[in-house]
């Protein structure tokens, strides 16, 4: 099996060498070369099928694969992913690579909170492992999805060197591009599948650049060729000044009155962040706006405003950071009410910290 995969990788251009077989006069020279190539293959990709998940009764009714793909300089970033095969027709349904925003939030958020086939049961935490349920409206009903933890130090993705811990939008763009081509080499059944790149929130900044780089790579003849069809964004940030658009959005959605909006426009002149403290009228209008919308979640205006996880210790960043179970409910975590969407985020911390979960997902100990 390993030999077949390696030969397939060679055909797709994964390995290259300036030597031909005839250059090796003795088999004793050829053998070490082959062994090194196999070792490189094993380090480059490691994926395993997950048949059961702790907290969910019975075997999984869909195909789940988890694993690592080495990206970056000398593959010093080990990118973790969850791959779920379409529950409909994986041979014909599209393939989507999904990135969660943040920046730097785990793809696990997309898997269990947003579009994946599993979710946490809406029940109060009782000290045991949180229970999972199947989500009937999962996007995996019509497409195969790769949820990938990038950039580095996101979710279960880790760096093997100090230099590789560096992060930037452009580094993420290059690493996602590299990840996808390597993943397709190891999953040749999807080489001709329609591919889409999807994400939410801060991914609105990076995904257009990722799509452009993939397209340029195709034009340059990089292998394997990616059958890129487009991209989609949910609740995306399209500029680093996105907070400035919350007031026009609130007015457009009928959350504030026409009178308040006109006053904000007049007194703030379209600048609603970093307001000059000397501009008393604008400051007062901003205070009124904040008071009027204080009970709503601006991420999803149909939700109430709920407590959130502390950004420095949130599970949404690095899942490799384990917190002691007895001390998890401390100042680092605000407990939301059960009717809040963020209650599921609270449950994620306990679920991802459980040793049986990490074993089931084949998480490396680093």
TrEMBL record:
Naturally occurring in which organism (per UniProt): Glycine soja
Matching Pfam families: Peptidase_S10
Protein family according to the UniProt entry: Belongs to the peptidase S10 family.
UniProt GO MF annotations: acyltransferase activity, transferring groups other than amino-acyl groups; serine-type carboxypeptidase activity
GO biological process: proteolysis; secondary metabolic process
Keyword list, A-Z: Carboxypeptidase, Hydrolase, Protease
Protein name as catalogued: Serine carboxypeptidase-like 19 isoform E
Superkingdom of the organism of origin: Eukaryota
UniProt xrefs under InterPro entries: AB_hydrolase_fold, Peptidase_S10
């Amino acid at each position: 099996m390993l030999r077949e995969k390696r030969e397939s990788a060679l055909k797709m251009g994964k390995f290259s060498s300036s030597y031909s077989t005839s250059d090796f006069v003795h088999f004793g020279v050829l053998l070490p070369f082959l062994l090194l190539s196999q070792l490189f293959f094993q380090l480059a990709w490691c994926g395993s099928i997950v048949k059961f998940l702790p907290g969910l009764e019975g075997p999984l009714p869909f195909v789940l694969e988890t694993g690592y793909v080495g990206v970056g300089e000398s593959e010093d970033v080990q990118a973790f992913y969850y791959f779920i095969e379409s529950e409909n027709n994986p041979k014909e349904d599209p393939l989507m690579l999904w990135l969660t925003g943040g920046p730097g939030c785990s793809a696990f958020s997309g898997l269990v909170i947003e579009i994946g086939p599993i979710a946490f049961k809406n029940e109060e935490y009782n000290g045991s492992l949180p229970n999972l349920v199947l989500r009937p409206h999962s996007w995996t009903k019509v497409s195969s999805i790769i949820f990938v933890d990038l950039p580095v130090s996101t979710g279960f993705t880790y760096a093997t060197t100090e230099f590789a811990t560096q992060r930037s939008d452009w580094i993420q763009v290059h690493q996602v591009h590299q990840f996808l081509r390597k993943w397709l080499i190891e999953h040749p059944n999807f080489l001709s599948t329609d591919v889409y790149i999807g994400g939410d929130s801060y991914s609105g900044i990076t995904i257009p650049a990722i799509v452009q780089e993939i397209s340029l790579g195709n034009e340059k003849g990089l292998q394997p060729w990616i059958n890129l069809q487009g991209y989609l964004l949910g609740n995306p940030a399209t500029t680093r000044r996105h907070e400035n658009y919350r007031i026009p959005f609130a007015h457009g959605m009928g959350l504030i009155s026409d009178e308040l909006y006109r006053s904000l426009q007049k007194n703030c002149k379209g600048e609603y962040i970093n307001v000059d403290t000397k501009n008393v009228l604008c400051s007062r209008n901003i205070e009124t706006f904040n008071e009027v919308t204080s009970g709503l979640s601006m991420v999803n205006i149909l939700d109430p405003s709920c407590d959130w996880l502390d950004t420095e210790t949130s599970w949404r960043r690095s899942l490799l950071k384990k917190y002691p179970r007895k001390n998890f409910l401390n100042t680092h975590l605000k407990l939301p009410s059960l009717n809040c969407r963020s209650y599921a985020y609270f449950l994620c911390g306990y679920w991802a910290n459980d040793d049986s979960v990490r074993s089931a997902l084949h998480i490396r100990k680093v």
